Amino acid sequence: MVRFLLARPIAVFMTFLALMVFSFIVLRTLPISLLPPIDVPQIVVKVSYPNASPEAIEQNVLNPIREGLITLNGLEEMDSKAGSEVGTIRLTFDYSTQMELAYIDVNEKIDRLTNSLPEDLARPEVIRINTSDIPVARVQVVPKEGVSEVEVSLLAENVLKKRIEQLPGVSLVDINGKKERIITVQPDEQALAALGMTQQNVISAIQSGNSDLPGISVKDGQFRYFLRLATRVDTPADIESLPVAAASGAIISLGKLASVKYETQENLGYHLFGTQESLVITVHKQASAKMNELIPALKEALELFKVDYPQVDFELTQDQSNLLNAAISNLETSLLFGGMFAFAVLFLFMKDYRLPLIIGLSLPSSLLISFLVFYFFNLSINIISLSGLALGIGMLIDNAIIVLDNITRKRESGLGLFDACVEGVNEVMGALISSVLTTLAVFVPLVFLSGISGALFFDQAVAVTAILSVSLAVAFILLPMLYFLLFSRSKKAYDNQEGRIFSKVLDLYEVGYRSVTQNRNLSFVLFLVLIPLGIGISLLLKSEGLPEIEKLDATLEVDWSEPISAAENRDRVVSLLNTLQGSYTQAEADVGVRQFLLFDGENSIQQALLYFLFPTVEEKVSAIAEMEAFLKDNYPEASFTLGDAPNAFDQLFSSSLPYYEVRWKDLEGKEAIPEEKMDPWLSQFPTQQWERGPGLQKEASVVFTLRADKMATYQIPVDAVQDQINKLFGSYTITDIKRFGEITPIRLKEPNSRFEDLLRTTRVSASDSVSYILGEFVEHDYEDHYKYVTADKGGIYQSLNVTSEDPDELASEYIRWGQEKNLGVTMVGQYFKDKENIQQLIGILLISVLLLYFILAAQFESFIQPLIVVFTLPLGIGGAFLVLWICGASLNVMSAIGLVVMLGIMVNDAILKIDTINRLRADFVESDIISAGEALEMALHKAGQIRLKPILMTSITTILALIPIVFSSGLGADLQRPLVFSVIGGLTIGTLTSLYFVPLAYWFTVSKKSLKSS
């Protein structure tokens, strides 16, 4: 095939050129994202039920919904959590579930359940989780001094949101911190009492004045007009002019009986930018959009906003494109330095400028054509797929060097240019195909990992497969064609002398080779001892998901663990921000209940999330210590979490599951076990290293008890007392003003007095129109009760989070503890998920090794020789672990990718070396001039000399291309540094050992057989 194609170099060249042009066109259409658009198999159902207790929400809302959703296809887990006024149900599906259909199914079932839910309950929200739900940036909208916050909220909702949504690539715009305008009515109790009137007279007058006649029309001859009542109100002045009839028959304007005015509705949550109340707009991108085009367009839009809306300040924060830009920058750096160093190394070793030029043309062409595969597999350019391309670049250079070196060697042996190109490619074709297949055999099975890891590996596996497959086509077709074209015009005779530098390297190799062959037994034992020692270094390395990145931002999640209002929560956060004033360059906070449509977390008035950006790491460390001290000294009851601000990776891999949770259900009843019974039981729990789960957390509350005996004595209706309590303490809406889609509620103004004072001063009317003090019929008491009611598929449960180092050690004791108390105990958590993932990973890696062995056995037609390749890998892994340990790095995702890169190159070198030994040995044996034993010795020695140059060139070019990252700074360098350490360590130590280990192991596997035959 190579001979046929080389005979038509112009046709081959034009074909590759056409492919590259088409690839360039395709590249411009590929979406650019931070992460691949993975459907996380989770759906969250959120319920908002004002003035309802956790028990009421669980019994009346969440329980019926859970029962209705339990038959969903592919449903694996279902957990619910009921708190004061809010409730959530988290549905987790199998990864094979089609989430579009599951989302539709959940919505249909919710619609069917509507009739069985409370009438005053708003429809539950159904939120589908996707990686594109992670916002790419946040826009801070800060009102200037004197500007109405309500007006800014209307501007953000009606103008800014729509203008940002019109930007190409934007899928959703979400807002938090909006303020709404309401009309408040504050009755004058003394004036009402003097006229023998009550609040109800004022309420009835407003409701009558705002009534409408929907669907009624009047006929006027041939015309028909829809009827509208002229008494409808629009403004506080309209309400104040409404007439109110007194018991005496006198008509009084409402303005004399109550104060009516516009006010800002009391919020359940706030957003702060710095210490100032503001709004935040989160921007989400479409899956097919390019982030590197969206963010500049967003920044340009913000500059226009600053001109168009001078009453507001704008700021862009938490730009997630920085990670993607860092990855792209690293790939560009690798290509640039890889090309430069490849040129330098090839020139030093081969002394011909045309060879580096060929590689310089092959690298970008391979990379560009790889994007065609992206297009056909609907992949985006993201951090995962880019790391896959980076994985393949090392082997791409490796293949190019091997082919060029082999063609050059054929020319040195006296073959003509055309025959040298053909024979040079054909000779290494089988070995190169095997090396690519073995790399894919190690890597591609990782796609079958369950969970998000397997979904992410899909993009990486396709990227690796694409670039390695293209690199083979380039190495077998484009490289020999370019070599033929460039060298065919040369009139200069071919210089087959080695470069001076390589000659010295070859002399050093010969010294080492003689030492190893003279002490084969000792050398082999030393290599065998190095394998467990190198692998053992892994025990000294710490393990983590992602490498530690030097971040200048941090977050503080705080739960005040007290029944405070949202305003008090805001004031505490502002106090904390003022304490840290000057140490941070940027700060924002989401306080209390968040208004985001896509927020799937826990919405609580008592919680706050703060984000800080610091100028230096030192300032960050100092500020974190200051925050801890402030919270512990001033709010000892508060629970808080301080740490680095999560990036998109952290948010994607974060789990809502606790690490190790012991759950139990009461086998007799279907309710949570009461505190007075539960607390003594907890003191008998098998370990004291635990924290209360959500179902055991307590909060203080006020309990009202109606005195039925007194109400009966004074003939006070129960409805009258409940209605009066609702008007005093609830958010009592009289009516709504609806104009062109805008709704303005008219509400009774809530008194600011303590509830005990209100009970003593408020009166309630009896059936005989005599009024009495409300406090006479209501008793109140303070008590602690469970803050949340938690449940799963099987019903209500309570739980503890075990915090010991080996949480599963006492599993049988936990079950025995539950049996003694008639409790059904189960253990769940991330601990079991991690254990399952590790078992899957071990199984997949075993399959990978078997595939690798089968491929090599077919290549070498031997059952023993593949083991030589397998045993070279631990030497490289040991070298990688050693450098990671010396440099203080950890075992993480990036260092694991580095190991795969390094192993791919090492496997390649070992396969080619064994293939060359087999070929030379066969040639020497067929000559019948020397014995089989001598043929073996000569083949081992000659193969070492032949393969020394490509092995060293591959390792040196890869190492030198990566070294600049070690000395770089910034987010991208921090992310890639463990990968670099793995590759440099593995190739430096692994290459040196494999140069001598492969011939040594080969000799031990065939020497006895050779001696017998001789």
Automatic annotation (TrEMBL):
The UniProt transmembrane annotation reads: 12-30, 333-350, 357-377, 383-407, 428-449, 461-486, 522-541, 841-860, 867-886, 892-912, 951-973, 979-1004
Question: Key word Transmembrane present in the record?
Answer: yes
Q: Which Gene3D superfamilies match?
A: Multidrug efflux transporter AcrB pore domain, Multidrug efflux transporter AcrB pore domain like, Multidrug efflux transporter AcrB TolC docking domain, DN and DC subdomains, Multidrug efflux transporter AcrB transmembrane domain
UniProt keywords, alphabetically: Membrane, Transmembrane, Transmembrane helix
InterPro entries cross-referenced by the UniProt entry? AcrB_DN_DC_subdom, Acrflvin-R
At the top level, the lineage of the source is: Bacteria
The reply to whether Membrane figures as a keyword in the UniProt entry is yes
- The protein's name in its UniProt record: Efflux RND transporter permease subunit
